[in-house]
Amino acid sequence: MVQQHDEDARRAAARESIAQGRATLGIELGSTRIKAVLVGEDHVPLASGGHAWENQYVDRTWTYSLDAVWEGLRAAVADLLDDAERRHGVRPTSLAAIGVSAMMHGYLAFDADDELLVPFRTWRNTSTGPAAAELTELLGYNVPLRWSVAHLYQAVLDAEPHVPDVRFVTTLAGYVHWRLTGRRVLGVGDASGMFPVDPATRDYDADLLARFDAHVADRLPVEHLADLLPDVLVAGQEAGTLTAEGAALLDPSGALRAGTPLCPPEGDAGTGMVATASVAPRTANISVGTSIFAMVVLEQPLATVHHEIDLVTTPAGDLVAMVHCNNGASELGEWAGVFGRFATALGSDAGADEVFGVLLREALEGEADGGGLLAYNNLSGEPVTGLDEGRPLVVRTPDSRLTLGNFVRTQVYAAFGALSLGMRILTAEGVEVDAMFAHGGLFRTAGVAQRLLAAAVDTPVAVGRTAGEGGAWGIAVLAGYLASGATTDLGTYLTEQVFADAELDVAQPDPADVAGYAAWLGRYEAGLAVERAATEAL
């Protein structure tokens, strides 16, 4: 009876929170899914909605159409509104705050009439090598291939006809936020993936901007690069309010009202840090999705520039070393689809999640080193390993042991391979991590990917109850931080308000797994020659 009473009280509180507009809405545009999460004042998800989408490879460019952006956003929000009504008997109309997040970096360029000049160039494109190399040398700061300034400068180098018309450049999160509020702003974490940010000022680095302006001179249509970029805001600052036009874009039914404040739009790296309370020095998180990346909050700057390591910031503006790999769990997902179809052909009615869970658990039956199997998950190029294009491969020697367990374990290892090489550089720099948190859909199956990741990084890995919610929940928390008045720093807010009672499952590195993964990684690194040959031959 007591348990039922408590459950009834929770439901009543959730219903009241939604009805009175005290919940926050977080939306994240990921690589394969747009997700919306409604979060209560206790930071617990109350409802969610989603929409699957895929990037398109058009004229050798990875892109999404802007029509697909808005179709997906509307579908995800409609799904959330339906879910809230189904679960709580009330349909949200007003909210305490909204946050928008999306995959970082890339290139969205607009003219003076706010028209898109070229199709959206996503983070996945690796065609900016000359620009990235030249800017890294010029700035003395690693400029990755996917950063917005690399895309812009590559367009300058290539004398693309749209360059004279560019008047605004932003990221996907910045674009959506702009259309919802009319404000051309960006959270500092996402902004740090457009151009280097100075942690002391929480803004674009003024000295590096001046160096860029002098180098580019008359090749851009404006005198100062900063005139093309969004203004930078930090977590807790109000970033505009939902306009009537913006409300109609999200919800054509008219249920959502205009006037809701929005927090600064962030990238998926920043929301991942929030979703795992990894914003303080010596904390880190790993996000696994279409891409995989580790974010390590630094105590001090790195001694050397490394092309494998990005320097970005937390949503509060603190310096972070980011190991970003273009290829994450997508290839594993493709294989799960193959095995799912095989199960269906045998007459099974197992759903995709069940198939995925069975395969992951089977990986624990595999040998620690994968039984001599080797896999590469490269659907696209991988800057960390110096690959311009990807060719997914499974390679084995005649004396390897081809079992289902070894096969799946090797596919999971492949998702972590390039990341491990980048993390090794941070270890050599003397960077120390006290806690590593993981999130993303791969961790919905309890214990498996988490255990293998702990072996890959040789560090305890924690997964919380919101691991599967990921960045959509993280940006909803940032919206809640805004709604709370942001009277404390972000780290304190997360520790004392959001994660005070969080239940974490911590996996310690198993010595046998650590040794097995190290052996596998040695083969992986040596076998990169095979992957390079495949890109040349196929």
From TrEMBL:
Q: Which residues form the Carbohydrate kinase FGGY N-terminal domain?
A: 24-250
Q: Which Pfam families match?
A: FGGY_C, FGGY_N
Please tell me whether the keyword Kinase is annotated for this protein.
yes
Spell out the molecular function terms from Gene Ontology: kinase activity
Single Gene Ontology BP annotation: D-xylose metabolic process
Q: Which UniProt keywords apply?
A: Carbohydrate metabolism, Kinase, Transferase, Xylose metabolism
Q: What InterPro entries does the record point to?
A: ATPase_NBD, FGGY_C, FGGY_Carb_Kinase, FGGY_N
Domain of life from the UniProt record? Bacteria
Start and end residues of each Carbohydrate kinase FGGY C-terminal domain: 284-482
Parts of the chain that traverse the membrane: none
Q: Which family does it belong to?
A: Belongs to the FGGY kinase family.
What protein name does the entry list?
Answer: Carbohydrate kinase, FGGY-like protein
